[in-house]
Amino acid sequence: MKSIIERIKKGHFWQFHGGIHPPEQKFLTNDKPIRTVELPQELIIPLQQHIGQSGELLIKPGDKVLKGQQLTQFSSPMAVPVHAPTSGLVTAVKPSTIAHPSGLNDLCIFITPDGEDKWQERKSCENFYQLSQHELISKIANAGIAGMGGAGFPTHIKTNTQSSVNYLIINAAECEPYITADDLLIREQSTTIIDGIKILDLLLKPEYILIGIEDNKPEAIKVLKQGTKDIEKIIVCVLPTKYPTGGEKQLIKALTGLEVPSDKLPLSLGIVMQNVATCYAIADAVINDTPLLKRVVTITGQALEKPQNIWALLGTPINYLLAQCGYLINNDKHLIMGGPMMGFSLANDNVPIVKTTNCILAPSEEEISTKTKEVDCIRCGQCADVCPSQLLPQELQWSAKAKDHNQLMKLNLFDCIDCGACAYVCPSQIPLVQYYRVAKAEIRQQQILDLQAEKAKGRFEARKLRLDKEKLAREAKHKKAAEARKAAMNNKTASGKSATSAVAAALARVKAKKLGAKAPQEENIVNVSDITQRTSDLSDKQSQVAIVIAKAKANKEAVKAVNSVANEKNETTTKIVKEKTTKDKALDITLVVEQKKEMTKAATEHSTTPTLAIADDNKEIKRKEAVAKIMAKKKIKKQQEIETK
Amino acid sequence: MTTIIAILVLGTMASLFGALLGYASIKYKVKGDPLAEQIDDMLPQTQCGQCGYPGCKPYAKAVAEGEAINKCAPGGDDTIKKIAELMGVDVQPLNESHEQDNNPKVAFIIEEDCIGCTKCIQACPVDAILGAAKQMHTIIVDECTGCDLCVAPCPVDCIEMRPLVPTTQNWQWDLNTIPVTRLD
Questions:
Q1: Which CATH class is domain A2-361?
Q2: Residues 144-163 (B) with a CB less than 8 A from some CB of A
Q3: What average pLDDT does this structure show over B63-73?
Q4: What is the ipTM metric for this complex?
């Protein structure tokens, strides 16, 4: 470590692989102070402005909020709250276009400012050295600070580490063309930034603090050197200007010569990196009890009359900021959030400024053409020369086009930092980095799908197991019940006797009837015996109920049959009529018994939990039938479609 | 004499190896069909039964025994490609009797119409429907595989398949679709 520090103190730094020197275009905005603008008509605050989960809402439409009031609370450690940037009225909580390349909608809080800009109660803390580690971290977490360099990683997690830290690196490189937000912030707010660095020093206790800054910001370097000359452990490291020096891994390599291994965090090497704007926000939160409500945004590009850095409240729609900077309205509008290398085109100009927005670029058509003229790769290999992650962009491109995910993983696609250097140098104007972005999203999606498939399989198998278990349990129960019945039948108790004798009597009566009556009555017997047959097949409950009913019915029937037989003997003239009635009665019995059967079935179904529904041998058949039905439906649909075509 | 020794030696060796093989076949017995397991891992596990088999595993078993590899509609061409690679057979286009549209969908119960008959609950292969008899049912979206097996049993036709809404988490980059327009 000593040799590293000696080397740094001499002004010798390391080189990371590749890199490019695009036109800087920083002159557009770096000569003007940061401007404050009036409150916009409406603020749109997305609930999620960082990596991780969004918090839970604390307010509802119609609520009045004060400046700095917390709007969401967080239950999980990765969530970061958002705050009201000014006092006013919450008009709505609804989905709106967010700052995301997809242009998709997400939940946003709409606030109409009341113009008073009234603060909630604040407790400023002059001497932060008195605060404990825990108090400092909770202040940072409650202020809703997420990494302001672009990634938006929750700061309170990054600062709350148990492992020892060798280097705290403050990233002031700002390597991307056009952007001057950090440069201006350092020039104007260096004391607060240095206070922020001191707080980080308290939290992380690093051995050295290195401030990495590119040599194209002479004024900022001067201010920083001036401010830190009394503090021994802070070293301002002036690096040669090269894109992408500001990349986390690249800056670590340039300053310390260490390389962060693939899929590892810099913390594994004892390094923590924070952006200068984050340091400012930390100091503001700890000292002034001010949550993250505003940030410096570079509004630039040749389509603007007065490009300038602006202190923008979070949630300010960008069309308001563009109007403040004299946006020349043209039809073919192209707006980029972030810089020209790593930014993304916006779907519309009503997107709000969020915690990670450092630049809005409104280029003219000559500056950045929207029309790409991609031609075939000529295999010149320039992309591999400039890749800061030492990947093979050309190979990656082939695999990305072929959607060969395995090959992409072998080529370490996920080590790509999306810097766009390869696309910048490509003589065939292939938008290489866009292909990688697509491929990365596809691979992530595939991973999600694989996880879901795994889960679905688990659930399916668990269900099958449960159904089998239930089936076995039911069978065992039936067997037991059948045995119990048998025992009761054999038992010479009064009830057993009566039950047997009743059935036997009924059967005898039926037999007698069969003998006595003619063909139509034969049908009845078939029905009755059929019922007894069926009832014995049913589950114990069902069969018991059914038997009781059948017995009752049979008794009644038998009485009637006896009567009818008697009548037959006495009045042969009414015989046919009686026959008819008995036939009807028998049919009624079948119906009633059937109904009862249905009811008992339903009852047993309901008595068990509904999800644990019937699963007998018919289950498989039913399922197959359902499948067949769906297939048939689909076939018909298809046929219809073909016909309509 | 030499002949006897030869027979003895060879006989001993044969019985020795036979015993060894017999022991190994018991000790290292692979339960189930490893090929079917591998195929099962490639299938999307929607358990939809569109292949004609009751679930993904039965189809995987059938494929391992020589069934056509192009019957999995939700998996689409990607799955066919993977299985073809594993089985060492040619890639075939998806069976024509299936719908080509395999965009992700989830079932949705129109709750006003639901009568609480529990029929869909019994049909769901992954227990993704919550409800009780005569109570309104609902789909657990995160667990629904979009197999549409619950649609047919519904007596009041209150279940429909809706396409999954893209969020920023599952959104796919599409290079040419971002319209750069002004909102007024």
A1: alpha beta
A2: 145, 148-149, 151-153
A3: 86
A4: 0.76
